Amino acid sequence: MVFSNAITRLFGIKYPIVQAGMVWNSGWRLASAVSNSGGLGLIGSGSMYPDTLREHIKKCKAATSAHFGVNIPLLYPEIEKHIRVVIEEKISIVFTSAGNPEAWTSVLKQEGIRVVHVVSSSKFARKAQAAGCDAVVAEGFEAGGHNGREETTSMVLIPAVVASVDIPVIAAGGIATGRQMFAAFSLGAQGVQMGTRFVLSEEASSHPDFKNKVLHATEGDTSLSLKLLMPVRLLKNRFYEQVTEAERKGASENELRDLLGKGRARRGMFEGDLEEGELEIGQACSLVRDILPAARILENIWDEFRKTHADPLSCKPETS
Known about the structure:
Layout: H1 6-11, E1 17-19, H2 28-36, E2 41-44, H3 50-63, E3 68-73, H4 79-88, E4 93-97, H5 105-110, E5 114-119, H6 122-131, E6 135-139, E7 145-146, H7 154-164, E8 169-172, H8 178-186, E9 191-194, H9 196-199, H10 208-215, E10 222-225, E11 232-235, H11 238-248, H12 253-260, H13 264-270, H14 294-310
Parallel strand pairs: 1-9, 2-3, 3-4, 4-5, 5-6, 6-8, 8-9
Antiparallel strand pairs: 7-11, 10-11
Helix pairs in contact: 2-3, 3-4, 6-7, 8-14, 11-12
């Protein structure tokens, strides 16, 4: 099945599947493996110093001749340095998130970079389009990482965003299988972005203990937290319980920042501290029951999407 649409043409890829740029999970090994397999791999720069980002970009270039991109959270404290790195390294695709796209989109576009912004509402999708973005990622409440305070689910958000903008929409949030990808396309999306499914890949840079924790998670094992700061979906552990108790007692923004401290995400996802670390993951973790090479993950997702596309009623749901 040869497939071509606005997203595959925009990025020059075979499959309209994007691997999310996740902190402490998506370095050059994962990004290059996904891109080599026909999807779009993203380096997650949010956990990297500028020099580290440059190193990952150079290694990714050496590992693949296919297109790949960089995800840049706009709340990063040294955002100017990250922007400079992607421009100097001639990155052609940048996904921005967690901030106002008006701040840097025009700068990136002037360099010929295709820019995609992650949004959690139709309002922000329209702002991203007005800022000049080439596409948006409509990320529902089910997603891991930074999330929308509105708690709009993907089933509602995707068609709402599709109806509100003229640029292509990539669906994200709770999507880990080919059948879910087909559902997103039925709602008007032209691509999908998956994070949690690629956390459970052999190439993800996250700690094996974190991967194993995610592998055995079930429905209800995650919860949206830290809404007063920047909403993030967490696996429940001792740190999550501390945050929940602080929020229950009406902790201020500064008190929550003190509790979060520095390096909490690294401690959890990269170093494997499953109790005191911050364990970011999406609801789709309950659907994933294996750790596979990224190439196999893409193959499985596309095969299930293709079969569902051919006959939606004959393809039984499967966990990946």
